[in-house]
Specification:
Blueprint lengths: L1 E2 L5 E2 L2 E3 L3 H25 L3 E2 L5 H19 L3 E3 L2 H24 L8 E2 L17 H17 L2 H29 L7
Helix pairs in contact: 2-4, 2-5, 3-4, 4-5
């Protein structure tokens, strides 16, 4: 048994204090990968489109993680079906995230960077979805708060994320149509 807030013992709970550090480490790895890929794309003639939208996405994701940390303290949840289901779903979602990143290879960035004349990737998860990584973000904004029992974060950031992603997808698709071999499939 573990002592909860106020010294009350909590039976049947499990610590999820490791979840947020793991997510933060993943994001730091992804930002470094983005930096490296962006440099390579620019060296091949790529250009960044709509860089003014990037700080909004960074702020949204940073505030999401801070809100999760604050609302879910002391980072203990019941060891029940919801906890196990959320962890399993997050594992699958993380697999989709890294499958998407691997499929795009050096074309993957967290920014909108296009190389004129390049072809749009339609392999891996991109055979089925135009934006699998954005589906991952939507699912993470649902699953992480569900796992960590953070209902206010779930509602506030899921709703805030929708217009940000909508704008991002619209701008990304416009940039792709204007500068790449986007084709008729989409």
């Amino acid at each position: 048994m573990h002592c909860g807030p106020g010294g009350v013992e909590e039976e049947g709970t499990v610590s999820v204090a490791w979840v947020l550090p793991v997510v933060v480490l993943q994001r730091l790895f992804e930002l470094e990968l983005c930096r490296r890929n962006r440099r390579a794309l620019v060296a091949r003639g790529g250009r960044e489109c709509h860089p003014e939208t990037y700080p909004v996405m960074v702020a949204l994701h940073t505030l999401f993680l801070l809100s999760l940390a604050w609302e879910s303290y002391p980072w203990r949840v019941p060891l029940d079906f919801r906890t196990v289901a959320c962890l399993a779903a997050l594992l699958l979602v993380t697999g989709l995230r890294y499958g998407s990143i691997a499929t795009l290879g050096d074309h993957w960035t967290t920014r909108i960077v296009v190389v004129p004349g390049s072809r749009v990737v339609r392999a891996g998860p991109y055979r089925f979805l135009r934006h699998p990584n954005y589906l991952v973000i939507v699912l993470e904004f649902l699953l992480l708060p569900l796992l960590l029992r953070a209902p206010y974060t779930l509602v506030a950031f899921s709703l805030a994320n929708l217009p940000v992603l909508r704008q991002r997808i619209r701008l990304e698709e416009k940039a792709l149509r204007e500068t790449t071999d986007y084709g008729e499939r989409y």
